[in-house]
Amino acid sequence: MVTKENYGYMWECPDYFELDGKRFLSVCPQGLEAYDTKFQNLFQSGYFTAEKNQLGEFTEWDMGFDFYAPQTFVDPKGRRILIGWMGMDTPEYKNATTELGWQHCLTIPREIGLGKDGKLIQNPLKEFENLRKSGKKIRESERMKVILPFELDGKITENFSLNFDHKFIFSYDNNNKLFEMKFRDQDYGCGRTTRKTPLENPEKLRMIVDMSSIEIYLNNG
To answer: Which of 127, 146, 171 is where one domain is finished?
Structure first.
């Protein structure tokens, strides 16, 4: 198969699969030029549509700081499941856990589906909801303490900002149609700074937080 454009100098972790009659090739291309809202990681990870020996548009799997080498499989229920490596090795990252003898982990298993626009969507497995114990509604501008791990589930109607101890901020700018994740404290982010992603019509936000990671899902995947 060939691509219309140049996509780096090496592809790692290839994974070909079919879903709802469509064919896809997931790869990790190295050597792509970074832009303000595209290809922001050290190495990239995404998928092509694969039809008639021609690869179509390349779409990134994840727009966060640490995501690489995803692989998919079909579970006994017939669902296409994706698990990615939540870790990027770069001199700029000084992960605090290295002093404890470990770093990096795997993402929450994600069920892959086909969206209305033909792009793939991904959400945590339904079974993950069994871990929920209790819930509370958060009012605008409310400050509260939460016990890790926790999950935030809400609707997006306008500009908003979530502020974690003034060190990590997740926000949406409705004028520029842009989401942003930003570490204001370099020690807190261990070298991570900012990631941005455009989205025209934001509606739903789901955030899952544990002791060492945050996974954010927009618009049902």
So the answer is: 127
